[in-house]
């Protein structure tokens, strides 16, 4: 008898996951979304094995429920369906913040496991029409299990990660995940947004180089999603932004001083750190 994975929320990540998981072991992949256009697109393009607008039709029988909603939507779903999840099942998510989500999962009854999950993949686009099965190829899959999470469920998540093409699976705490993502992802979006706030932006149209396009690529973001990500991870993000401000100020001071050697030394220091990051060898993402 087939088991069931319910993918709740068929946006870019949820749609890509439903595509990537097709054929995984003996699971049927059922996509859930409230949008009829999204469901029609999913059905027409084979996103998962089946789709439904009714979470109550699939969640009570799902062996695994993957919540691919906005962060606050995940917390609401956990509260609304806490007594509906199948006993002994696994609930997980794909959210870019973990501390708030793991706290929200505390509401789940005993016997329903929750493992926080964050595949380090995505694009600047949103919506199921941009979903593709290869989204997760060579990405890191970060897990934040609870102390009570079962080895069987952790192993299942590791096998799912391997099946969708993840480079590796890393286990860490919600707090460490959020501190790292504040620096490597959320702050990068703030930098891109800040560059686009410059009064010279439109005067430069047509003269953008690859460095400008690369820096600002993520600025055309999903506003509602990133408002939630920023606000729900504000302590860690504020710390990262404070460090950025200090580093920017140091460059401003070097420029204002007129000391060319001091500026050159600072450039060499920063460039050297980047080159060390790019050296071939074992990844430094060893949070476990």
TrEMBL record:
Superkingdom of source: Bacteria
Gene3D superfamilies to which the protein is assigned, alphabetical: 6-phosphogluconate dehydrogenase C-terminal like domain, NAD(P)-binding Rossmann-like Domain
GO MF annotation list: NAD+ binding; prephenate dehydrogenase (NAD+) activity; prephenate dehydrogenase (NADP+) activity
A Pfam family hit: PDH_C
Alphabetic keyword roster: Oxidoreductase
Gene Ontology terms: biological process: tyrosine biosynthetic process
Annotated pathway: Amino-acid biosynthesis
Prephenate/arogenate dehydrogenase domain ranges (all copies): 3-285
Annotated SUPFAM superfamilies: 6-phosphogluconate dehydrogenase C-terminal domain-like (SSF48179), NAD(P)-binding Rossmann-fold domains (SSF51735)
Family to which this protein belongs: Belongs to the prephenate/arogenate dehydrogenase family.
Name of this chain's protein: Prephenate dehydrogenase
């Amino acid at each position: 008898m087939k088991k069931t994975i319910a993918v709740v929320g068929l946006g870019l990540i949820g749609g890509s996951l439903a595509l990537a998981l097709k054929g995984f072991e003996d699971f049927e992949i059922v996509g859930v979304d409230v949008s009829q256009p999204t469901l029609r697109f999913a059905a027409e393009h084979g996103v998962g094995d089946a789709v439904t607008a009714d979470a109550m039709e699939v969640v009570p029988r799902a062996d695994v429920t993957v919540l691919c909603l906005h962060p606050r939507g995940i917390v609401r779903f956990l509260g609304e369906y806490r007594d509906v999840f199948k006993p002994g099942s696994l609930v997980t998510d794909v959210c870019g913040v973990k501390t708030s989500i793991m706290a929200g999962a505390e509401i789940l009854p005993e016997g329903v496991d929750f493992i926080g999950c964050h595949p380090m993949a995505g694009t600047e686009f949103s919506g199921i029409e941009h979903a593709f099965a290869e989204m997760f190829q060579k990405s890191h899959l970060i897990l934040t299990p609870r102390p009570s999470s079962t080895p069987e469920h952790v192993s299942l998540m590791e096998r799912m990660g391997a099946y969708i093409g993840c480079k590796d699976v890393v286990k860490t705490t919600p707090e460490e995940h959020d501190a790292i993502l504040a620096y490597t992802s959320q702050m990068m979006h703030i930098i891109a947004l800040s560059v686009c706030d410059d009064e010279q932006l439109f005067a430069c149209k047509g003269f953008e180089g690859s460095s400008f396009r690369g820096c600002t690529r993520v600025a055309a973001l999903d506003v509602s999603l990133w408002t939630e990500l920023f606000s729900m991870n504000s302590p860690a993000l504020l710390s990262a932004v404070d460090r950025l401000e200090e580093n920017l100020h140091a460059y401003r001071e070097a420029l204002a001083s007129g000391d060319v050697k001091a500026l050159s030394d600072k450039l060499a220091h920063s460039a050297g750190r980047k080159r060390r990051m790019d050296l071939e060898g074992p990844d430094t993402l060893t949070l476990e």
